[in-house]
User: Fold this.
Amino acid sequence: MDDTTALIVTASFAGIVVLAVLARRLLLRSNFPNLPGPPAGSLLTGNVHRMRSRHSIKYRKHVTDTHGPLFKLAGPYGAEWLYIYDPKALYSITIKDQDVWGKHGALLTMIMLGPGLLSTEHHQHRKQRKMLTPVFSAAYLRNITSVFYETTHKLRDDEAMQRLGEVKDVMSILLRANMTASEKDRLAEEELIAQVSTFILAGMDTTSNATSRVLHILASKTDAQTKLPDEILEAQAGTEVSYDTLMELPFLDAVCRETLRVYAPVTTISRYAVKDTVLGLSAPIRGTDGTLISEVPVPKGTAVLCDLGACNTNAALWGPDAREWKPELFQQERWLAPLPREVEEARVPGVYSNLMTVHGGGRSCIGFKYAQLELKVVLAVLLANFRFELSDKDIVWNSAGVMYPTVGPVSKKPEMPLKVSVFRERI
Ligand code: HEM
Assistant:
C-alpha cells in the first residue's frame, strides 16, 4: 500500500468512527434521559476523561457539588457513564450486587501483572482472597512490625529495594500457607508470582503518597505536628512502640484517618454492569424535568465511575465542613468524638472507618492494615526525630490512579520538597 492509499484508508476509517459516534449520539435514545450531568464535552472522548485528568481535582469538586451524588457523564465514542458517590448506590455496587459489577480494565491488568488479586474475577479471585487474607491479618503484621521499623530506619536507601524486602517477607508467609493448604485451595505458581507485582503496584504508590500527604499537611499545621511527637515519645519510652500500642495512639490514628478521609489516594474506581440492574439512592435526586428520582435502572454494559473521595467528603454525611482536615480542635475532633449520626446511618460500604478510601466488599483493599501499619511506623519514627516545614516550592497534587505531588502544575515528576530539621530538644 502506498502512502496516499494508506492516508485515504486512515481518513475513511476515522470518518466512519466519527459518523458512527454522531449517529449513536443523535439517533439512539439516552438510557438516562432524566439524569443531570455536565455538558458532554468532546464528541469522541466525552467528558469522562476530564473527570479523570491530572488537574481535575477542582473541576471534579465543582461537578459533584453541582450535580449531586449520581449523575451521567458522556463516555468515549458516545457511550453513557454514571458518576456515583451516593452511599446506597455504592453499597449495591460494592456489596449487595457485587457480582453484577465487573472490573473495568481487568484484562489489561491481567496482561500487565498476570493472574493476581487485582485482575482475576469470580471463583479464581475468591480462591486467591481466601489464601491471601490471613497473610495480611493483624496477627501476621504483629510479627513483622520490626521489619517495618528496620525499613524506616533505612529511609535513605532506595525505596523500591526496601519494598521488595517487605514483599519478600509477605511472600514467604504466603508460600508457607500455600504449601500447607489443601489441593483445592492451593494457588498455581503463576498466581503466586503475579501477587508480587500486584502487591508492589497496589501497595507502593498508595502508601508512600499517603505518607507524603500527611507530612505535607503537618508541615503547615504546627499544632498537630507538635502534639504528635508528644504522644509518640510518651509511648516510646526509649524503645520501639509495639504494634498494638502504635495502632492505638489516639491522635496519630485521628491524623491518619482524617488524612485518608479528606485526601483519598485512590480517587475513583470504575466498574461496568454485567447485566441489567437497578441502583437505589440514599436520598432522592432531582431529574432534569424536576421530578424526584429514588432509583435508577441501569442497562447491561453501562460503565460507572465511583468517586471514593466524594463519598468521604459528602456534606450530607459529614457536615458543611466535610472537606476540611480537622482533627486538631480537640472537642470537635472527628475521630475522637462520636461520628455524626448521618454517617452511622448511611451504611457506607467501606471496610475502613465508614470511608470508601480502601473500598469495601469482596474487592476491598487486602493490604489496608499493612498500609496503616507502615504509615504509622514511618510517621512515628520521622516525627519523633524531625520537624517538617513548607519550603518555597509550590506543591501541587495531581489526580491519577493514585494522587501524587509535583512541584508546580507543569512538572510530572513525583516529588515533594519540604524543609526538614532535626527535632533537637528531644534528642
Ligand atoms: C493508603 C494505602 C492504600 C490505599 C488507599 C489503597 C486503596 C485500594 C483501593 C481503593 C482498592 C480497590 C481497587 C479496585 O477494586 O478497583 C485496593 C485494592 C487492593 N489493594 Fe490497596 N490500597 C492501599 C495500600 C495497599 C497495600 C499496602 C497493599 C499490599 C501490600 C495493597 C494491595 C491491594 C490489592 C492486592 C488490591 C486488590 C484487592 C482485590 O481486588 O481483591 N493496597 N486498594
Q: What stands out?
A: The chain has 16 helices and eleven strands. The radius of gyration is 23 Å. Residues 77 and 364 are 31 Å apart (CA to CA).
